Amino acid sequence: MIETAAIVLHCFDYRETSRIVRLATREVGVVSAIARGARRPKSRFGQGLDLFTSGSAQLVMHPSRDLHTLASFDASRARPLLAGSLRRFGAAAAIGELCLRFGTEATAGVHDALEGGFDRLETADDASVAARALAAGWRIVAELGFAPSLEECALCHRTLGDDEEVRFAHRAGGAVCATCRTLVPGARALPAAARLTLRHWLAGEEAAIPDRGTARAHQRLLREFLEEHLGDGRAFRAFVAWEKLDA
Ligand SMILES: [Zn+2]
User: Fold this and answer.
1) What percentage of the chain exceeds 70 in pLDDT?
2) Lowest CB count within 10 Å: 23, 30, 70, 203, which one?
3) Distance, CA 94 to ligand 1 centroid (Å)?
């Protein structure tokens, strides 16, 4: 049995009385676990297994199986506001999906970035929700250890000027300079302001987005980066749904 801080990222009913949850945990990354009896009226899980809730999980780990047993879950913070607006919910689901897909490498830093990101999303208004979600997403990418190169060209490693207009080449792993861009056809233009915003987000800082068009470009950039990095061909469905909310 292990005890770990955890956040509910997915939950669904299982048979008559149980639920199956996917948890982002601080100690063992993303795990699936069955909460037996969770749907009984006087369940010891109470209302704790709601989506995006943080708490302390006691897990019985089964080394040879993918489905572990959730012995208890003490909720410390429910996040009803995330479900209270379609935009906040869509954004939180997209960030949750990022963790679910990359979560086996989870660390304390990833967990803190997710927790802090959800906290900031809860209080976001419609104008700030995209920027806060993107900040959380890139911070998690940084904590996972595959932040893109933005201060130097990913190919020739020349230091890029702050005002330099560059391209973002997913396959190359970040920004590429004017000389190298011919080597990566199809790379998207990355304006200097957008590159600076990305650097703030990767460093765990907030940065506003000026308009919806810029927000959409940032959403697409992050999704394509994740798809390229994971490379398993599976779509990021929650992420795509989030992009469509504001399209
Ligand atoms: Zn270069």
Assistant:
1) 99
2) 203
3) 32
